[in-house]
Amino acid sequence: MAQNASVIINADQGEHQISRHIYGHFAEHLGRCIYGGFYVGADNQAIPHTDGVRNDIIQALKDLKVPNLRWPGGCFADTYHWKDGVGPQSERPTIVNRWWGGATEDNSFGTHNFLNLCEVLGAEPYLSANVGSGTVQEVIDWVQYTNHDGVSPMADWRRANGREKPWAVKYWGVGNETWGCGGNMTAEYYANIYRQYATFMPGWSGSAKIERIASGASGNDYHWTETLMKNVPHQLMEAVALHHYSVLDWSEKGPDVGFSEAQYFKTMEESLKMEEFVTRHSTIMDKYDPEKKVALFVDEWGGWYDGDADKGVLYQQNTMRDAMIAGAVLNIFNNHAERVKMANIAQAVNVLQAVILTDEEKMILTPTYHVMKLYNVHQDATLLPLSIDTPDYELDGKKLPALSVSASRDDQGVMHISLVNIDAKKAHSTEVKIHGDEAKTVRGSILSSASLQDHNTFDNPDKITPKDFKDFKVKDGILTVSLPPFSVVVLEVK
Ligand code: AHR
Q1: Residue nearest to atom 5 of ligand 1 (CA)
Q2: Any idea where the Alpha-L-arabinofuranosidase C-terminal domain is (predicted)?
């Protein structure tokens, strides 16, 4: 195959760390994410579990090196009253999940369950606090309950409920989508509300510092980010969020499987908009915060289709299309590591672009899971600057860049390069020049399949798994890599 793309990596110029938190996840009380997903109940005899959380899910997420988990929403968070989910089960009231199908939940999965799960996973918890229908006092109490080491009403209540040591929760969202389901606020109004909440949240964690995350813009709402950056004193805000889903059309999102190539193209077009959104929101942040003290957290992202409602609210299959979204968008986040310090794919189990799907006692790992696992070599590694000259992926006269790349060097000095070819029909061969280093030993893994529609099923769980990749050569220090259509390749270069 003739070489038609080129990449130059400056292997000796890395400056910024790729935060492992870019590889974060999200678990909302929605459909079968928590109940019937993560949580099968402490008395379940059929499915092996630890305090009600499935052991197979725990193991899969540990293998993925999940760095953080956001909970309890999403839209649900602004209806959630945490005190209803602690203490004796017999005294817990129910809650109607008014955003997601109106299910009545028994509050059996609460703060202790979630924070203990994060401890088992070795993941940082990210609690999303209720601003839309809660109170400042409720949030103060939650911080005190989870983080205070001394004697206080909330810390004592935590101890009475069986937990001596605080969990020291670092990440705190101050409302979610406050422009929509979190209260339909204007940016100006929310900026004031945010200031009020953020004022009272610190002071309960000893010397540990919490990070407060302002509910952020959707997609290209630059006014939202500008208003927060301008109106909120930066010592009150450690991060601003951003949400962007890859959606064809909110009124008709298209099928999860059986989509046309035109629908695939549009999904990728929407996914690649992340580059523009992250760049433009960062530029606004640079204006008000040139020292980059406030981070950008993309705390919801992923593909959203008309899935299979019979299997749960917002349940959808996960095909090679989703692998393309994951590979391309994670490359974008890596390359913006200087400002993007966290991202949370929506969602971990049985909802939207899930890494795990379950059916009763069965569990499968999706193509998105495999991409995230291949990419976890970038966690906390040093981003290497690069430039790329890519051919286009063309359909019906429209064009998208076919290839995307990011590269990093880990603390052992090993370089990793992740390359994605989103072209549905054409393979592309790319030359990779590495300046400031030499490719002596190269090993690769690939995720690819015969059809874009391919996916793992409960009957065929390993249809799509990473394989060894050998379609590269090294000559005179230059690496030439052949990327099949719709494939993700990760190379280890020593
Ligand atoms: O992830 C599903 C929903 O999408 C979340 O609850 C909300 O924040 C977003 O609109």
Answers
A1: 74
A2: 299-487
Structure tokens at 10: 């400056």
| Both structure tokens of 86 | 């602690």
- pLDDT tens digits along 277-314: 999 999 999 999 999 999 999 999 999 999 999 999 99
Note the maximum CA span of the chain. Answer: 71
Q: Best mutation site among 176, 177, 215, 242 for ligand 1, i.e. most ligand atoms within 8 A of its Cβ?
A: 177
- The type of residue at 95 is I
Domain closes at, from 359, 379, 399: 379
Element (H or E) spanning 264, and its range?
helix 261-288
- The partner residues of 349 in beta bridges, in order of sequence, read 356
Please give the number of the atom of ligand 1 that sits closest to the Cα of 99.
6
Average pLDDT across the chain, whole number: 97
Determine the Cα–Cα distance for residues 428 and 418; give it in Å rounded to an integer.
15
Q: Which of 379, 402, 419 delimits the end of a domain? A: 379
Dihedral (C-alpha) 379, 323, 7, 295: value to the nearest 10 degrees? Answer: -40
Is 328 in a helix, a strand, or coil? Answer: helix
The CA 39 to ligand 1 mean position distance, Å, reads 20
Shared domain for 345 and 361, answered yes or no, is yes
On whether the CB atoms of residues 122 and 62 are closer than 8 A, the answer is yes
Positions annotated as catalytic residues are 177, 300
What's the CATH number where 207 sits? 3.20.20.80
- With left for phi above 0 and alpha for psi between -120 and 50, is residue 476 left, alpha or beta? left
pTM of the prediction? 0.98
Residue 11 alpha carbon to ligand 1 centre in Å:
38
d(CA 75, ligand 1 centre) in Å: 6
DSSP H/E element including 341: strand 340-346
Which residues are CB-contacts of 433 (< 8 A; sequence separation ≥ 6)?
6, 7, 8, 9, 477, 478, 479
Please give the Cα distance from 100 to 179 (Å, whole number): 18
Regarding whether 295 and 264 lie in a shared domain, the answer is yes
Distance 1 CA to ligand 1 centre (A): 43
CA atoms of 126 and 149, how far apart (whole Å): 19
**Token digits of residue 148:** 């205070």
Using CB distances shorter than 6 Å, the residues near ligand 1 are 28, 73-75, 176-177, 300, 346-347, 352
Q: Is the pLDDT of residue 476 over 90?
A: no
ipTM over 0.95: yes
CATH number of the domain that 396 lies in? 2.60.40.1180
Q: How many domains does the chain have?
A: 2
Residue 20 phi, psi (nearest 5) = -60, -20
**Tens of pLDDT along 70-102?**
999 999 999 999 999 999 999 999 999 999 999
Q: Domain containing 274: what range?
A: 20-379
Give the pLDDT band of residue 206 (cuts 50, 70, 90). confident
